[in-house]
Amino acid sequence: MKYLYSLLLIVICYQAQAQHTAASVQFWEKLSAHCGKAYEGKLVSPESDPRFQGRLVMHVRSCEDGRIRIPFFVGDDRSRTWVLTMGEDQLIQLKHDHRHSDGTQDEVTQYGGKASNSGSATIQFFPADQFTAELLPAAVGNIWWISVDENSFTYNLRRLGSETLFSVKFDLTKPVDAPEAPWGWKD
Fold it and tell me: Which domain does 19 fall in, by range?
């Protein structure tokens, strides 16, 4: 009976582990299905911000093994790329690649965080990592999250302990023409 109980416990743990990793993989696959497509978005919060005036477009431009790169364009500004990486632990990391128009890296780049759990098939959370805390001390309380479903992709930032909330939502039901390459992009 002890043997059967131990075996049952192993099976339950294995199933829990499989379910644990499946959510992040499902999210990854849902996002990867949009590779090569671009979508227009709108600022949700705040409702207006002078730094984000102009047409907002995301382009799921590159889906490589373990890495998805999504340039985010604000009008003619092609400086931002969201970089998602799937680790061997099947947890996803989000980094922000910021470039100048000549392609060189901005001083403030490669900040972000890694999911602390598998999230769900439609949402992943990324608390600020140590690199971010050292690069941008005010961002130590940042939590980014991305949600994706059949209709929309939403990128969000909340800075804990402050009023900072940023959210931009893209309509996945209406692809748009793919924009130019982001600054510094090499295919």
Answer: 2-176
pTM: 0.86
Among the listed residues 49, 48, 64, 58, the one whose alpha carbon sits nearest the alpha carbon of residue 78: 58
* Cβ-contact 119, 24 below 8 angstroms: yes
Say whether 27 sits in a helix, a strand or coil.
helix
The one-letter amino acid code at 90 reads Q
Backbone torsion region of residue 118, taken as left when φ is above 0, otherwise alpha when ψ lies between -120 and 50, otherwise beta: alpha
Answer yes or no: is 119 within a domain.
yes
CATH number at residue 57: 2.40.128
**C-alpha to C-alpha distance for 13 and 169, rounded to whole angstroms:** 37
CA 89-94-98 angle, 5° bins: 145
Largest CA distance in the chain: 69
Asked whether the CA dihedral 29, 35, 39, 41 is positive or negative, the reply is positive
Domain count, the chain: 1
pLDDT digits (tens, 9 = 90+) for 130-172: 999 999 999 999 999 999 999 999 999 999 988 889 999 999 9
Structure tokens at 16: 């829990």
By the 10 Å C-beta count (0-12 exposed, 13-18 middle, 19+ buried), 35 is classed as middle
